[in-house]
Amino acid sequence: MAITITPLRPTLGAEISGVDLSRPLDAATKDALSRALAEHLALVFHDQSLTPEQYLAAAAAFGPPMRQHYSQHNMPDHPDIGLVWHRNGQQPAERWHTDHTNRERPPAATMLYGVEIPSRGGGTSVANMRAAYAALPDAEQAKLRELRTVNTLDDHHKDVRPEDAEKFGKPIMHPMVRIHPVHGSPAMYFHITKTAYIEGMSPGDSRAYLADLLDRMIRPEIVYTHQWRKGDVLVIDDRATMHRAHGDYDRSESRILWRIIVEGDRPMAA
Ligand SMILES: [Fe+2]
Q1: CA 244 to ligand 1 center in whole angstroms
Q2: Tens digits of per-residue pLDDT, 186-198?
Q3: Is residue 252 helix, strand or coil?
């Protein structure tokens, strides 16, 4: 397969062409995609047509698919695929975050496949947290390198099944600045509503500091916003980005994304 990688924004995002994700990927293609993800942080594949089995096989190019913790939203016959769908009772995740930080080995990547797309709005934005970290003052970078978050399930989700809370709600500590295992660079790493507290700080002070960091760090020049077309696959590098959904679409229309997360390494402190 001849892969073409076309950058979408100066700071992140690339469109991949020449790859049919419904077919088995050879080792050279998997390696090229893994390096492209580490470099560009968000990969877009257009015009894909995938069964759940084909999608899971393609995801394995980026890592082993891992179980998502709000199990009521998982596809019944394929529980490693989560359904992002407001008619499931979900609210679009409009706050900046990275996925599943409550796991010891949190996802390397989140993959989204556009199955039903509203006629307008409903995009997904991705921010480069490598660039966000690099833009902070040296003294604050040094302070952040010493900090760790204690992560658990979101406190605002009221429909968590007891078995999910038991399996996935145990406190997990991660560095706030992590080194990317492929790229070798540092990036900011936290999930504001999965952080119970920053080690040594009260929950309230922790939440206020994380909100302040998000306000200061996420600027338009480090963001790529994906406007969905049916058949798109978006792969997001969870080790060096944050993302958010846009709820600006007509809720009488359907927006269904199939989500897979793939397991990554234990975050390594900078
Ligand atoms: Fe997410």
Answers
A1: 6
A2: 999 999 999 999 9
A3: coil
**Ion ligand 1 residues within 5 Å by Cβ:** 99
Query: Ligand 1 centre and the CA of 22: distance in Å?
Result: 24
Q: How far is the CA of 59 from the centre of ligand 1 (A)?
A: 16
**Are residues 180 and 240 in contact, defined by beta-carbon separation less than 8 angstroms?**
yes
- The model's pTM: 0.95
Q: Is residue 88 predicted with pLDDT exceeding 90?
A: no
Distance 115 CA to ligand 1 centre (A): 17
Which structural domains are found in the chain, ordered by start? 4-264 (3.60.130.10)
* Beta strands per DSSP E along the chain: 4-7, 14-17, 42-45, 65-66, 74-75, 78-85, 107-116, 124-128, 148-151, 172-175, 177-179, 186-188, 195-198, 223-226, 233-237, 241-245, 256-263, 268-269
Nearest to 237 by CA among 194, 195, 185: 185
Residue 124 Cα to ligand 1 middle (Å): 9
pLDDT of residue 169: 78
The 10s digit of each residue's pLDDT in 133-154 is 999 999 999 999 999 999 998 7
Residue for token pair 């078995």:
163
